[in-house]
């Protein structure tokens, strides 16, 4: 199955009909372009007290099976990573040996990717091309332009993929945040210009398509996080996603305002902050102390940011809840703030973690209980989706990055915005954008691979 020069195809192998393990293919004139290559985690199972999830012995790290394109890797011109979240970049070290293509991405994402590749002894084998916003690159028959958008991580990019058969706007993960605090912002004129040029299809994030209104700006969280911290009698531990450098900047401001020292607990947080410094997106005023020093400070002088907001086993917050963390031992009167919301499927693990914390006498504040906002989603709500459709004006809407409900609501919203046609599908379906929009169902076998004992295994 190979596209000819008249064809413009979209084929998702992961991330359509689900949230996570994104792996997308665009086909034209005998060649393919891959966008994103991410991981996911095992399907929900029974959670026990220590946070371990039991489900039929599944591997802890899973990703889309790339067999379709691995079998055609001589036709694969390159891999673009839109941003550095695990569900978009995390599978590259596992799958690149099957693909062996050049990788294109932004500076911050490249810093994260290099750290991952080094762990697999691949750093000097994978050709990484660092690109800037508004830069254009010819990758085989595809001319790709990187466009600035905002998300909950530095330097996310949308893509304008141009071919002689037509143009595709690929949104990646995004929101419209007028004050993102860290990294580049966005300009409506960028997307209005695409409409004048003509966009055959818009492949777009559906995660929050069921949410009315507009997402909260990162800049709106400082007041809520300050209020949640300033009256705490003991230590304050904030659980958030380690990739959200803007949130760390806000928490550094809160630490200064409350005369607390800030430290990071958890490997991914330390890794992300290091990448942010190397990429030039870390505020030099945001000083961190060595995590090993946190246990020696007076409790009222500690603000620690910890991994584990989703109740994952072996993360810093889980280890503190179990009394096994080497640097911090929680005590009654300490406070844990969840500056994150549950990813669907993680609710049971988070509830079990909160029970453990409360049994220690620790006060817990979640985003749902807080009087003021202490978390902001990185994905567009309905008003943002409407704005983007009004700017880009595609001929076809292709909702992705969501479960069936999210994508169906997204498609309805696109039609209400005047988009002539929406195509709804799932992983393995072939979206034929040109010459005539349509679908062929399940043309590619799809599934999951897992990483277990140093090798890829098929997940049933």
From TrEMBL:
Instruction: List, alphabetically, the Gene3D superfamilies matched.
Output: Metallo-hydrolase/oxidoreductase (3.40.50.10710), Ribonuclease Z/Hydroxyacylglutathione hydrolase-like (3.60.15.10)
Q: What GO annotations for molecular function exist for this entry?
A: exonuclease activity; metal ion binding; RNA binding
- SUPFAM superfamilies this protein is in? Metallo-hydrolase/oxidoreductase
UniProt keyword list: Exonuclease, Hydrolase, Metal-binding, Nuclease, RNA-binding, Zinc
Q: Does the keyword Zinc apply?
A: yes
According to the entry, every stretch annotated as the Metallo-beta-lactamase domain falls at: 20-214
Cited PANTHER family:
RIBONUCLEASE J
Protein name, per record: MBL fold hydrolase
Q: Which organism is it from?
A: Marinobacter nanhaiticus D15-8W
């Amino acid at each position: 199955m190979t596209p000819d020069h008249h064809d413009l195809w979209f084929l998702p192998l992961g991330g359509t009909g689900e949230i996570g393990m994104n792996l997308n293919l665009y086909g034209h004139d005998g060649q393919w372009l891959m966008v994103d290559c991410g991981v996911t985690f095992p399907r929900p199972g029974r959670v026990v007290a220590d946070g371990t999830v039991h489900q039929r012995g599944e591997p802890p790290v899973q990703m889309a099976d790339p067999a379709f394109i691995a079998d055609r890797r001589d036709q694969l011109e390159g891999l673009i990573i839109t941003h550095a979240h695990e569900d978009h970049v995390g599978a590259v070290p596992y799958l690149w040996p099957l693909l062996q293509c050049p990788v294109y991405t932004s500076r911050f994402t490249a810093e994260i990717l290099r750290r991952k590749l080094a762990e697999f002894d691949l750093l000097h084998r994978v050709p990484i091309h660092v690109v800037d916003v508004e830069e254009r690159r010819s990758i085989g028959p595809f001319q790709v332009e990187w466009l600035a958008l905002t998300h909950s991580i530095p330097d996310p990019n949308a893509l304008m993929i141009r071919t002689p058969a037509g143009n595709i706007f690929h949104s990646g993960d995004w929101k419209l945040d007028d004050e993102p605090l860290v990294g580049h912002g966005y300009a409506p004129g960028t997307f209005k210009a695409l409409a004048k040029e003509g966009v055959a299809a818009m492949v777009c994030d559906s995660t929050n398509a069921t949410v009315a209104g507009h997402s909260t700006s990162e800049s709106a969280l400082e007041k809520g996080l300050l209020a949640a911290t300033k009256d705490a009698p003991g230590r304050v531990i904030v659980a958030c996603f380690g990739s959200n450098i803007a949130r760390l900047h806000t928490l550094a401001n809160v630490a200064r305002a409350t005369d607390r020292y800030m430290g990071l607990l958890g490997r991914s947080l330390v890794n992300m902050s290091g990448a942010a410094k190397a990429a030039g997106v870390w505020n030099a005023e945001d000083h961190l102390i060595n995590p090993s020093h946190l246990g020696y400070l007076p409790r009222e002088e500690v603000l620690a940011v910890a991994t584990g907001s989703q109740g994952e086993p072996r993360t810093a917050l889980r280890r503190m809840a179990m009394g096994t963390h080497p640097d911090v031992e929680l005590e009654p009167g300490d406070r844990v703030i969840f500056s994150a919301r549950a990813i669907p499927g993680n609710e049971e693990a988070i509830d079990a973690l909160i029970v453990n914390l409360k049994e220690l006498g620790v006060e817990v504040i979640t985003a749902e209980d807080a009087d003021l906002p202490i978390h902001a989603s990185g994905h567009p709500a309905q008003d943002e989706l409407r704005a983007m459709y009004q700017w880009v004006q595609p001929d076809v809407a292709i909702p992705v990055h969501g479960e069936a409900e999210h994508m169906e609501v997204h498609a309805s919203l696109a039609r209400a915005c005047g988009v002539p046609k929406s195509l709804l599908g799932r992983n393995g379906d072939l979206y034929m954008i040109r010459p005539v929009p349509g679908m062929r169902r399940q043309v590619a076998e799809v599934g999951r691979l897992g990483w277990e004992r140093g090798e890829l295994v098929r997940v049933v």
